[in-house]
Amino acid sequence: MTGPGAPAGAVGDAAKPALVLENLPPEIIALIFDFLLPQPPEIGETRPVGYRQLMAEEPWFDFTRCRRGLHSLCRVSRRMSEMARPLLYRVVAIWNERSMLLFLRTLYNKPHYGLWTRYLSCHITLTRESVIREFRQLLTLHLPSFEPAPVTSVLTSAARDFIHMLGQFLPHMVVSEGDLDHVPQALLCFILMYLTKLETLLLQVPISDDHQEYDVFCSQVAQIKALFDSEPYAAPFQNIHTLLLQGDPELLAHFEEDDCDCEIPEVWGAQPRRYALLFASLPKLSTLEVSSDDGVWCCLPDEHRSSHESSGDDPPPPFLANIRHIFLHDSAAYPSDMYHLLRNAPQLESLYLASRLDDDPLREPVEDDSANAHPEALDIALSQHAKHLRALDVSWQDLHGFESLVGPDGRLTSLAHMGELTSLCVQMALLYGSPPAAVPGESAPLVDLLPPNLVDLTLEDWWWTNAAQLRDMPDWTLEDNVRHYQAQHDYRVAALRTLTQFARDVRTRLRRLKKVVLLCRIPWTWVLEGAVELDFHFEHVKSLFLEQGVQFSVTSDEV
Length: 559
Description:
- The protein has 4 domains: 68 residues, no CATH class; 194 residues, no CATH class; 96 residues, no CATH class; 127 residues, no CATH class.
- Helix content is 34%, strand content 12%.
- It has 18 helices and 12 strands.
- The chain has a 12-stranded parallel sheet with strand order 1-2-3-4-5-6-7-8-9-10-11-12.
- α3 packs antiparallel against α4.
- The protein is globular.
């Protein structure tokens, strides 16, 4: 209708295209799609349960919904598919044997899909007997459907030979005789060969000697470079800068069950020292993150090292030679184990360690006099083998009886001389050895115990004598909280005196310091419910720091 009675704007409105997603400019669509890019799963997470069983607060909930959204967009139109598919393959998580095999089948047919992947995580332990059996059944079912890509390259030729070999030998392979033990590792290796732009890799690895280590996988990765002499630009593993070794969380959860029917080893966990060959095969690897390691960070004996490495009386080469950042979660390492780690990582810039929370110590207390440092004490390692360290965050729940593994009198005396260190999170027990209340008037000024070029400092209000209280705290009543608060009066006075003096002295030595955080592990030392808030005791300390241009805050995970 175009006459005088036509609604205003009717002609113009009719000429406008419908406001639908496909009509938007591509840069706007790309921004919208970016919101569907799933965040990589955190290390230590068990694989998800069924899609509909996931609750909104669970770690895998958003990941699975983003993946499904991208997958749906790929089916809308060719244009939507061209924009969404690269995001669909950007972050890939393998949860079970079937998804791993079908992912390899997709890459086998469409190798260019692998160029989109930047993050890959494998959440199955490839050397478990149940996993090997499952792959035997799935290969029989799906191997006939593998269609090779219509291109020829070093990678596609090697993949064709591998799939052809599997097809020939699979009917004769017997799981019970170990014929298939190495096949899952080889399948993963071929997947990684297609992902030439991969930057971050998470591997779920064994934590029990009942399961073989990934020695075959490490050897295969080391040998693959030789295949690409004619196509060095296409060589895999060249862009991986972050490796996450996830100790099998499902087996860990089984160990922690009250009705666990298996024999739990005294010391268990992932063994990063067994992956030295893998570290050496990733030329850009700079960050190593490990969950549930067994605490042993010394080099393997000669018989476990490859023939090209030194042997005999020569010291073994550092197996973490190029690693610059190490993060350990739920670690069984003691301070003396950090001595070996630092020796084997001469370029290390960042070290984070959160220790395993066990009710009983993993080892016998050290008989040496705690007034003297053990020859492999952490304090000695920091002074001799941490020349490049810029960030340090290590903590333990209870080192009573192991003080000499820290340093003289259980103290880290070397921190004050570490000029490169700019970020530090440290327990007060590692600085003083004993609570200030135990030696009134004799404690050294806090400012003299810290690195001179600190920018960020977190002090954990923690002493080994608190370990028993931390274990009992979940069962405390309101009366228990009040009783604890009242019993800590003298300690609060001593601790506040230390912090007040620190605030006054801070600029005499720590001229670059910008931020100080006090982390209270037992909040009821400072909090009286309904009467005293966490910040109450620290207002004067905070104002003193502000006068020096330093931000001070106090926090607690429990409040």
